[in-house]
Amino acid sequence: MTNTYDLHNLTIETLLNRRSIRAFADEEIPADVVATLETVAQHAASSQYLNDWSAIRITDSKVAARLAEIGGQPYIAEAPLLYVFVLDEHRNASIAAAKGVDVDSDAFTLNGSYRYSQAQNDAVLALHAMETAAYSLGLGCVILGSLLNDVDALIDLLKLPKLTYPVLGLAIGRPAQEPALKPRMPRNIQFFENAYPQSSEDMLTTIADFDGVVHQYYDLRNTDRPVDAFSDQIAGNAVADMTGRTVGKPAARQGFRLDR
Ligand SMILES: Cc1cc2nc3c(=O)[nH]c(=O)nc-3n(C[C@H](O)[C@H](O)[C@H](O)COP(=O)(O)O)c2cc1C
């Protein structure tokens, strides 16, 4: 017997209709919704069950205003619910130390590059679970990498201890805008079979067509003109100044040894 699948179930519809929301109704999110979103995030998978992420709920409007300033995006301060997800080996280091592990020895690896990247993965998976749950409830979200414009300032503002590092923000609220779905590139240049294609020729031909599709999209942040062609956006980002967002120095300040 062959199984049949309902390809139009609510989960898939929610994911296919996801789009970033950057304007929110001035409407509080009820406590039971907040609790559900946070519990959903906790149920995401976690590398080796380390649960090596935390999230900081921002309820102080002064802190939110400062975050909006760091991110250079006013809507950050306007979100009824706002989180900063951090990768967190601080908690695990404390637990290990309480069990007698010498966290200053070379045998200690929670501060190494592998844990750093897996903890970041864990944080992102948790954030994404929360984001999806929020959309399923009719809320909207925007993920905030802009908070990393000034990592040092963010670490100070949130009083992040050693062995933590900010990953992303998530702003949540009832949508006060209806942006169009942003187009995605044809699947065959993002999903490959068995190995990575050895030539970029087909991809570049496809992208030339996709450029036109993206150019038709009007971003609500900039309603007066269509957005740049996809390849122009990529070329611009390829040389964007990332000075404040560089990981090496602030990660070392936080006690990580990314060379290990
Ligand atoms: C890691 C990450 C960081 C992002 N940072 C920001 C941000 O700082 N500000 C913002 O307005 N959107 C941010 N976004 C949203 C993206 O711009 C958005 O997802 C992308 O343009 C695709 O549009 P869509 O989400 O509407 O499909 C971020 C998305 C991701 C995944």
From TrEMBL:
Q: Where is the Nitroreductase domain?
A: 16-174
GO molecular function list: oxidoreductase activity
- Gene3D superfamilies with a match to the protein in the record: NADH Oxidase
**Annotated InterPro entries:** Flavin_OxRdtase_Frp, Nitroreductase, Nitroreductase-like
Give me the segments passing through the membrane. Answer: none
**Does Oxidoreductase appear among the keywords?**
yes
Which keywords accompany this UniProt record?
A: Flavoprotein, FMN, NADP, Oxidoreductase
One Pfam family in the UniProt entry: Nitroreductase
SUPFAM superfamilies recorded: FMN-dependent nitroreductase-like (SSF55469)
- PANTHER family in the record, alphabetically? OXYGEN-INSENSITIVE NADPH NITROREDUCTASE (PTHR43425:SF2)
Record-stated family: Belongs to the flavin oxidoreductase frp family.
What's the name of the protein?
Answer: NADPH-dependent oxidoreductase
